[in-house]
UniProtKB/TrEMBL annotation:
SUPFAM superfamilies attached to this UniProt entry: FAD/NAD(P)-binding domain
Any one Pfam family match given in the protein's UniProt record, by short name: DAO
Position of the signal peptide: none
Name of the protein described by the UniProt record: Sarcosine oxidase subunit beta
Coiled-coil regions listed in the entry: none
Originating organism: Shinella yambaruensis
Claim: Nuclease is one of the keywords in the record: no
InterPro entries per the UniProt record, alphabetical: FAD-dep_OxRdtase, FAD/NAD-bd_sf
Record's keyword annotation contains Oxidoreductase: yes
Length: 411
């Protein structure tokens, strides 16, 4: 994690004696903070309850890939809208959230995958994206020291990169300015309801009366929703990250290898955030360790991909959880049987990228307005009864499924 901005942290004092709110948001990640911001700007009295700290979990531990490449069809409008909103957010930030357009580059040691890259270039162009095969000097301009064993890459150029930690604190800071009240270090324990309507949230700091609750607590949402009879089929996977010292230019785009799934980005400050997929399953209460065997594998495969990195120093490591749903899509929308209850969870390891448009459309839905981007394909109720949702496009190449971060290796 890149360290919480202390100036902002000081400004984020807790609101004392909070007894009621129009809406209680449970979870101070990017989804909770940014939705709260939209709703406060629309005149609602909002309170965010965060059991640990702003950006303590996924939102402060991610790699900030605002990936357009290999995005599932149902998320395309969300990512396209988010690209615009990220740019505006960067411009409105007090300092910076380090949002930049960087592109994504998928490479392979396996020459036969070049044909699959070409299929994806054609498919991406057909939906209006800028996509290319890059080889030879063009490839080496993007990643000068890439292994000579890498022959070709699939490049998309509209993808972005952001610092998730800074972005979440900035959303919280703007929310506080807009009137959102924060209770940090406060756990929501129970959502009270009466005759099918939300009435209050019991927290470790007391009871908050409310008619509306948004559960944006990532994997912990299960504990809050299942007592209300809401089916929440979320499983967890652990992803591990190594951080290098600040380095001179290594890569422009976010670099991913198709197999093995080593990947990294170079942050605005010059560090590399290294990782190796797929993420591994983990039980909800298991300790989140950085495994020595994983560290070795990440280091080995990074050096194989860019041999010049053999002398780079690792300065930090951390692990973080992906909250996964059976169909790979987030659960976003109202709970059907409890009026006033809203859900936004299960972002499958890529929620930072789409957070701007998810939170914009979710806030609109909560306000009873028509969302800019329809959230129907993400309706939580789909796990209780099948919905008539347009089928997603099937992967047409052997790399098409790599947008799914826990997908099996390429066959
Ligand atoms: C290692 C890693 C790399 C990633 N890389 C990327 C990437 O490159 N691009 C991308 O788009 N996404 C990425 N992601 C995913 C992305 O970070 C998440 O999808 C996104 O941050 C989810 O935000 P959130 O607000 O839903 O959850 P979180 O940020 O996890 O926030 C949930 C909050 O709820 C709080 N909470 C839980 N229970 C309670 C309770 N009972 N009471 C009060 N508070 C509670 C938690 O403390 C937490 O702060 C990555 C994730 C990880 C872990």
């Amino acid at each position: 994690m890149n360290g919480a901005p202390t100036e902002t942290e000081k400004e984020m004092s807790n609101s004392p004696n909070l007894k009621s709110a129009d809406l209680v948001v449970i979870g101070g990640g990017i989804i909770g903070c940014w939705t709260a911001l939209h709703l406060a700007r629309a005149g609602k009295q909002v309170c965010v309850v965060e059991k640990a700290e702003i950006a303590h979990n996924g939102s402060g531990r991610n790699r900030g890939n605002v990936r357009v490449q290999l995005r599932e069809a149902v998320e395309r409008d969300l990512i396209n809208r988010s690209l615009v909103l990220w740019q505006g957010f960067e411009e409105s930030a007090r300092t910076t959230v380090e949002y930049r357009v960087t592109g994504n580059l998928l490479v392979s040691y396996d020459e036969t995958l070049t044909a699959d890259f070409q299929i994806e270039v054609d498919r991406h162009r057909a939906i209006g994206l800028d996509a290319h095969i890059v080889e030879g000097a063009a490839l080496r301009e993007l990643v000068p020291h890439i292994s000579p064993d890498i022959v070709a890459g699939f490049l998309t150029t509209q993808d972005g990169h952001v610092n998730g930690q800074l972005a979440t604190w900035e959303a919280a800071r703007q929310a506080k300015l807009a009137g959102v009240r924060f209770l940090r270090g406060t756990a929501a324990d129970l959502i009270e309801h009466d005759h099918g309507k939300v009435t209050a949230v019991q927290t470790s700091a007391g009871r908050i009366a409310t008619e509306s609750v948004l559960v944006a607590a990532a994997g912990d949402s299960v504990r809050l929703l299942e007592p209300l009879g809401i089916k929440t089929p979320i499983s967890l996977a652990l992803h591990q990250i190594l951080v290098t010292e600040k380095l001179p230019f290594v890569t422009g785009p976010y670099l991913r290898c198709a197999s093995p799934r080593i990947s990294f980005c170079q942050t605005a400050s010059g560090t590399l955030l290294l990782g190796l997929g797929p993420a591994s399953d983990i039980a909800p209460d298991a300790p989140q360790r950085v495994e020595p065997s994983k560290i070795e594998a990440i280091a080995r495969e990074t050096i194989r991909l860019v041999p010049a990195l053999k002398d780079a120093h690792i300065v930090r490591s951390w692990s973080g959880l992906f909250d996964l749903t059976p169909d790979g899509r987030a659960m976003i929308g109202p709970a059907e049987h409890v009026s006033g209850l809203w859900i936004a969870t299960g972002f499958n390891g890529h929620g930072m990228a789409i957070a701007p448009s998810v939170t914009e459309s979710l806030a609109q839905a909560i306000l009873g307005e028509t969302p800019t981007v329809s959230l129907d394909p993400f309706a939580p109720v789909r796990f209780e009864r099948p919905l008539d949702i347009e089928a997603s496009d099937e992967p047409v190449s052997r790399v098409g499924h790599l947008g799914n971060l826990v997908a099996p290796p390429i066959q």
